[in-house]
Amino acid sequence: MTYKNSIKIMYSNFSLCWKQLVWLVLSGLVVFALAGLVAMPIIDMLSKEGFFDLVKDFFEGIYVRPRKIPTSFADLIKRFGDLIKSHSNTLLDNYILLIVVIWLGVSVMRGLGLFACSGVLSAKMSSNAQIGYTNRLVSTLGKGLGYSLTHALITLPFLSAIIGLVVVYALLSKTILLAFVLLPVFSVLIYLIWSIKIVLFSCMIAEMINGITNPFVAFAKGVKLVSTRFWRTFSNAICVVLTISVVNFFVGVFTLGAGLLVTIPASSVFLAAFGMVTYYSACNKNFYISELIVVNLK
What we know:
The protein has helices at 2-12, 15-48, 51-64, 69-86, 88-127, 133-139, 141-154, 156-172, 176-201, 204-209, 215-226, 230-254, 260-282, and strands spanning 287-288, 294-295. The protein is mainly alpha-helical. The chain has one domain. The chain is globular, with a radius of gyration of 21 Å. The two termini are 15 Å apart.
């Protein structure tokens, strides 16, 4: 029911998706600009070494040499790694600063938006109250930043594991047959890691909305609360991960990326709804899923 109710709440509050889209675009432009400034020396180096010509050839080869895609991609990754390593003496500071800017920028952008969405949904679910997205974003800015930075820090092992799996998959996929054989294995591992992360953080924002100011304390209390229904939440989280990844993939492919302007912010609202429903269900609290429908858990 958690998964089903999360979808219902997302649809009954779908206007949040457009507000979330505006936030993601504006904050994304800021992060992109900062990252671009830091990355200019790296971009110049890659351009001089002819790396972007290799990228162009790779994308052209997708249509004319589809059987060589796995090999070409692995070669591209290897070439990129060799270039980064060979220039590490002169560009190490830029590498580190770029990673920090992207990591913190994306974390804060995602975290503030998710915290604002959760705040709006919390008011709607608890008392059917209407609170503006911008109002919630500004009024909870301090808590939102605390959540964002704490989330970024705690999720580093999960992020590192996922990046490691992607790199290993790219290096092992020497042939198209091997790529197809390994894809389900690595996909399952990534989905499991992602789902566990969602479960552990599912109640953190709700705990902070309900009075806990220390984000680490909120995380610990959230984990303790969700542990009482871990496997149920975990199975629902897997459904959430599959839904988000499949919908974004197919919409992105069949609309040439245009549909992602809807599905990406909708995914954020869906995650916010899932977190709030998980919290209310774990606490056995009643909540609204629309203006006229109340879920009675008592």
